[in-house]
Design a protein that fits this description.
Elements: E1 3-10, H1 16-24, H2 32-37, E2 44-49, E3 55-60, H3 68-75, E4 80-86, H4 93-104, E5 110-115, H5 122-136, E6 146-148, H6 157-168, E7 181-190, E8 194-201, E9 206-207, E10 211-215, E11 219-228, E12 231-233, E13 235-236, E14 240-247, E15 259-262, E16 269-278, E17 286-287, E18 290-296, E19 299-307, E20 312-313, E21 318-329, E22 336-341, E23 347-355, H7 366-378, H8 381-391, E24 397-398, H9 399-406, H10 410-422, E25 426-429, E26 432-435, H11 436-456, E27 463-464, H12 465-471, H13 478-490, E28 494-497, E29 500-503, H14 512-528, H15 535-541, H16 547-556, E30 559-563, E31 566-569, H17 570-586, H18 592-599, H19 603-615, E32 619-622, E33 625-628
Parallel strand pairs: 1-3, 1-4, 4-5, 5-6
Antiparallel strand pairs: 2-3, 7-8, 7-15, 8-14, 9-13, 10-11, 10-15, 11-12, 11-14, 16-21, 16-23, 17-20, 18-19, 18-22, 19-21, 22-23, 24-26, 25-26, 27-29, 28-29, 30-31, 32-33
Helix pairs in contact: 7-8, 8-10, 11-13, 18-19
Length: 632
């Protein structure tokens, strides 16, 4: 069954509620005050079926200027609008403001309904039609059908239904989204059902028993029951007036303006990057950092507008901006919004949300940011994804966050990411991504640090890997560091030796004095066999010895580090391993005493050498004995 949401719009006392009652038989004014004053204050709801079986949910909005914020809340999520104009008054201020709001919210379908035709003659009616025609020129209602009705007698109601049925075929069904969302317009409790919220389901699908999160307060709860137009159902999809009974949240914890969404699917934010349009009818230009009333979904929040490329936005113009809010909001890319002036209150503009969870934008960097916002706004899917990755800079961005920011189906996101990776426009580390521009800068910085290290430490093989990572302040994720190292290795620009990173082909540089000293030390170790002097003893003999020279001998392969302060010549170690393997050809186990006799060493050398053999998995210690771990 196809479902559409019809919203009313128009000036106060132009017969919106009476028209809805004539259409559906439902009186949408439910409050005592509404009955007493004869005006709509809160949102009202009704429904009926078209002859073709389409279920039409109706949101009846208040027309009084004091309740425009309620009108904006109701207009969010509607598929088409019935703009009502009373024949005895014609176009009035709220008619124009409601039409502007519908334009800003991206509504593209509508019917113009002229009410109270029984109060005027044909001549007046024709004048009203001309007046309406002039006011809707250039809007989405310019070529909209016009239906004349009298809600009291029912004249024209059948024609409206016929016109609406014809239009229902043209209205595209909302695309299924992986994220279910219901902006809350009412919260109350019902005995036996607990906390109940109502709203228009604008995307996704939810089932009885599913877990959801209420944003921006991030309260997890469970769907106890679902109702659509007072009938219990097991699941609900887009373009449906929905009531949800929520388990796990109290009535006083949530309010209108909050959003029920798929569990863990969104991120509350105090900032939003947007494409902003200022209405021609705005009384004055919008200044940078001006305070406004920000409306998105059913929420109204105070905030300020940071214009990213100018000091003021003139009437009828548009630009990219960042909205900074006093309270958090949860929205998605593509959501429409409205801004109203702080005082006096009136609608002045609106637009489209581009980045629902941005960093704080500094205007001096706007030249770098603006092209990326343009890509998000008007670019291809791949451009948009690339822009989101770029905007995260050196931090990179997770696939889960990308899914939220792009608001794309999983399959579409995966397809575009695969293409971007193949072109090396972005790079992946685990389940996160970084833009090639920042990744290349990162690699260049890494190379520069290694180069500088060689210059400052010419004797050393290279910079220890962990020390290098600590110097790259822009990298917070070790996985990104490892990816940069892997890429440079693949490109043949660096080498790794003994957990030290060096430029490809680099070899330590020695002075003549150092070369002479090293020859003496290397010979000393070679001649001392299994009982070499400890390093501290060598330093006493050669006070000019820099420990880096010992590291150099290790790098060359002349020495092997047995433990701290104790090194053995590589030839001696090779002989030792051969002797051990020969020993185990005759015997199955070796004692410390056997080892001492075989090597003719004291306990001072014997124990660290045995521990080294164990650590190198040549022998294995079992109690006080050793056995051969591998065959020679």
């Amino acid at each position: 069954m196809k479902r559409i949401i019809l919203g009313t719009a128009g000036h106060i006392d132009h017969g919106k509620t009476t028209f809805v009652k004539a259409l559906t038989g439902i009186d949408t004014d439910r409050l005592k005050e509404e009955k007493e004053r004869g005006i709509t204050i809160e949102l009202g709801f009704a429904h009926f079926f078209l002859p073709n079986g389409t279920l039409v949910g109706i949101v009846d909005v208040p027309g009084h200027e004091k309740f425009v914020k309620n009108m904006v809340a109701g207009a969010s999520g509607i598929d088409l609008v019935a703009l009502t104009v009373a024949a005895d008054e014609g176009v009035m201020p709220q008619t124009e403001e409601h039409l502007e709001i519908c334009e800003l919210l991206g509504i593209r379908y509508g019917i113009i309904v002229i009410t109270k035709i029984d109060l005027v003659d044909e001549e007046i009616l024709e004048l009203v039609k001309e007046d309406i025609k002039e006011h809707v020129k250039g809007t989405f209602l310019e070529n909209a059908p016009v239906v004349e009705v009298c809600s009291v007698t029912g004249e024209g109601i059948d024609k409206f239904i016929k016109v609406l049925e014809e239009m229902s075929y043209k209205i595209p069904e909302r695309k299924e989204s992986s994220i279910f969302r219901l902006p809350i317009d009412r919260v109350f409790t019902i005995k036996g059902f607990g906390t109940v919220v109502t709203g228009t389901t604008i995307s996704g699908r939810i089932r009885k028993g599913d877990e959801v999160t209420v944003y921006p307060v991030e309260i997890d709860c469970k769907i106890r029951a679902i109702q659509v137009h007072k009938k219990e159902v097991n699941e609900v999809g887009p373009s449906t007036r929905t009531a949800l009974s929520l388990q796990g949240v109290e009535k006083d914890e949530i309010e209108r303006g909050y959003v029920v969404a798929s569990k863990d699917s969104m991120k509350p934010s105090y900032m939003l990057d947007v494409f902003l349009e200022l209405l021609k009818s705005s009384p004055k230009p919008l200044k940078n950092r001006e305070k406004v009333r920000f409306h998105v979904g059913t929420a109204e929040i105070m905030g300020s507008v940071v214009l990213l490329d100018r000091e003021s936005l003139v009437q009828g113009d548009s630009c990219y901006a960042q909205i900074r809010l006093e309270e958090p909001v949860s929205a998605l890319r593509g959501d429409r919004f409205v801004i109203r002036s702080y005082s006096p209150v009136r609608t002045i503009g609106g637009g489209q949300i581009l980045h629902p969870f941005p960093k704080k934008r500094k205007r001096k960097f706007s030249k770098e940011i603006l092209p990326k916002l343009e890509d998000i706004h008007r670019g291809k899917r791949s451009d948009m994804i690339s822009a989101f990755v770029f905007l995260e800079g050196y931090d990179g961005i997770s696939k889960k966050m990308l899914s939220f920011l792009t608001n794309l189906e999983k399959e579409d996101l995966e397809k575009e990411l695969k293409e971007l990776l193949s072109k090396k426009e972005i790079f992946q580390f685990e389940q996160s991504f970084i833009h090639s521009l920042f990744f290349e800068k990162l690699k260049d910085e890494l190379l520069e640090i290694v180069k500088r290290y060689h210059s400052e430490n010419p004797i050393k093989i290279g910079i220890p890997k962990e020390e290098l990572r600590s110097k790259l302040k822009k990298i917070k994720d070790v996985r990104l560091f490892n990816l940069a190292v892997e890429e440079l290795l693949d490109e043949g620009k660096i080498e790794i030796q003994a957990e030290n990173i060096k430029l490809k082909g680099y070899e330590p540089i020695l002075t003549e004095k150092q070369k002479i000293l090293l020859e003496k030390i290397e010979r000393l170790y070679r001649e001392s066999g299994f009982s070499p002097p400890y390093l501290r003893e060598i330093k006493e003999r050669y006070p000019d010895l820099d420990e880096e020279l010992i590291e150099y001998l290790v790098w060359k392969g002349d020495l092997v580090k047995i433990k701290e302060d104790f090194y053995l010549h590589s030839e001696a170690l090779k002989r030792l391993i051969g002797m051990v393997e020969d020993f185990f050809k005759e015997k199955s186990e070796m004692s410390v005493q056997d080892f001492k006799q075989m090597t003719n060493t004291t306990r001072k050398y014997c124990i660290p050498l045995l521990e080294y053999l164990d650590k190198s998995q040549i022998t294995i210690r079992i109690g006080d004995k050793r056995k051969l771990r591998r065959k020679g």
